[in-house]
Amino acid sequence: MADLFVTGPEGPIRPRGAEPVEPVRAVLFDFSGTLFQMAPYPDRVRAALGRPVGEAEMDRILGGLEAGLADPDVAAAQHGRDVSAPAHRHAFTTWYGSAPELAPVAGALYDQLRTPEHWVPYTDTRETLGALAAAGIGVGVVSDVGWDLRPTFAHHGLDDPVGAWVHSCDHGTEKPDPVLFRHACDVLGVTPGQALMVGDVPAKDGGAAAAGIRSYVLPAGQVPGSRRGLDAVLRLAGVPGSAGRRGGVRAPSRSSGSRRGSGSDRTS
Q1: Angle at CA 257, nearest 5°, toward 242 and 235?
Q2: pLDDT value at position 122?
Q3: What is the phi/psi pair of residue 222, to 5°?
Q4: Most exposed residue of 82, 162, 180, 232, measured as fewest CB within 10 angstroms of its CB?
């Protein structure tokens, strides 16, 4: 704790003198809701059930998922969800199973969550990672997640720029634990003061600031296939005139498709 910046109700407990702001040498990204979004729930439900689902039935199923979030058993399963692969699976299958129609296919829905084809990169993800790579700025992914994200990035041709993969389930802890952010910095060969963390959950991703890492939190709610506003990251990283650059990342080996709509399993 000695090297953390601790603040009490009245301000810093151990104020520090001003230090020069170092240039950004690495950008750490959250996964879900930042670079990728899950395919819409209606598409996933139909695929899991393997049959057509009418509008009224779909409303009932989605309503069951919404109601399930308030179920005490579902809520209890979310505690420590991201510290291990088994805990992650249990948390999500418990939630999916709270909707009666989905209980028989809860496992299939979770398998979708791990399947690269069911994740959609935002339209500016490719150009942003490419611009950072072209500028010689390191890229890391720091995610609260229950599985290895590398196959998902590889499926969409987005793995080449990423030099550090930090999955919470591999470390037995969750964001905002500074251990995760610092490990990414160590792998990329930068100090916390040379890194920028980008995510969409203030309490999780913004927690990187406690480790001495600058943080940029995006607003939540962007739908799959939309533009995320990642050009702001390039400006913060000091990459001039490159918000529209698309170089540095190979094209995906297979078409990822373009799915639109709402719905996102909250893995980060």
Answers
A1: 15
A2: 96
A3: -75, 140
A4: 232
Q: Which of 38, 29, 250 is nearest to 159 (CA)?
A: 250
| Whether residues 72 and 105 fall in one domain | yes
List pLDDT tens digits, range 86-136.
999 999 999 999 999 999 999 999 999 999 999 999 999 999 999 999 999
Q: How far is CA 170 from CA 71, 85, 151, 166, in A?
A: 28, 8, 16, 8
State both tokens at 181.
């952010």
Task: Let me know whether 190 and 153 are in one domain.
Answer: yes
Alpha-carbon distance 181 to 160, whole Å?
Answer: 20
Residues 77 and 175 in one domain: no
Residue 123 and residue 52 share a domain: no
CA distances 247 to 142, 148, 168, Å, are 23, 26, 30
